[in-house]
Design a protein that fits this description.
The chain has about 240 residues and is α+β, with helices and mostly antiparallel strands. Helices cover about 30% and strands about 25% of the residues. It is built from five helices and seven strands, in the order αββααααβββββ. A hairpin with an 8-residue loop joins β6 and β7.
């Protein structure tokens, strides 16, 4: 009889231990190791990245865009020829009396409008000279200045040279001098522009300039108009570089 009680007691203890083990093993503590991944299953996609960041160091992330090489010129936004806020245009003190004298003869003379027209003429002349296109030059230059420009173009062509000029934009177009000479109004404009200038020889090699360098160029151009004439156009009569 005693043995039967012992067997029953051992059985109860065994059932108790089994229930306790099931209670413990059935719980998750948060420290369990994740199950091994099936090697043939597709890899888990990486988390969605944010927008590309310019200038970050390469790190294997395709969304990172490195900065351009220092030898590559950064694009520069052009300054619009007639943008009032982008280009300084003023009458320098030395030119103020001359401007007043011109306006006394020609009340329609307006410095701001004149400067805008001068910038347009500057752009046309510089680009036409680089291309060797004498057509636009003939209507914007006086006969003596036109002959000088035409001679320079002819000499360049004879040497087999090719000029490349890119006018990026203007920083300033100030009226530096103004005066009346008899019936002629004469105005000198100080242009401050950004340009890329390259001269190639007959073999196409660079003889002068740098295609990757933007230069600040300061020019003094003098325009003249006969105030007694009904022709409102101004002609370029002189060019020189400052500095």
């Amino acid at each position: 009889m005693g043995n039967n009680y012992d067997i029953i007691l051992i059985g109860l203890v065994a059932i108790f231990l089994i229930l306790r083990l099931r209670a413990v093993l059935g719980k998750r503590t948060g420290n369990e190791r994740p199950p091994a991944r099936d090697p043939f299953s597709p890899p888990t996609p990486p988390p969605t990245a944010g927008p590309p960041r310019i200038g970050d160091a390469p790190s294997g992330n395709d969304n990172v865009i490195p900065l351009p090489n220092s030898n590559t010129p950064s694009p520069r936004p052009p300054l619009a020829v007639n943008a009032p806020g982008g280009i300084r245009s003023s009458v320098l003190p030395a030119a103020a009396p001359g401007v007043a004298a011109i306006r006394a003869v020609d009340p329609g003379f307006e410095p701001t409008g004149f400067a805008a027209g001068a910038r347009a003429a500057f752009t046309t002349i510089v680009e036409a000279f680089a291309k060797g296109d004498i057509g636009p030059l003939q209507s914007l230059l006086d006969p003596q200045t036109f002959a000088s420009f035409k001679g320079a173009i002819t000499s360049r062509i004879e040497r087999g040279e090719k000029a490349e000029t890119t006018l990026i934009g203007f920083e300033a177009s100030d009226i530096a001098m103004a005066e009346m000479q008899g019936g002629f109004a004469q105005v000198t404009v100080r242009f401050v522009s950004e340009q890329i200038n390259v001269l190639r020889n007959a073999d196409g090699q660079i003889a002068d300039g740098n295609p990757n360098e933007v230069q600040k160029v300061v020019d003094l151009w003098t325009f003249r108009r006969d105030t007694r004439s009904s022709d409102p156009n101004w002609l370029l009569i002189k060019t020189e570089s400052e500095g």
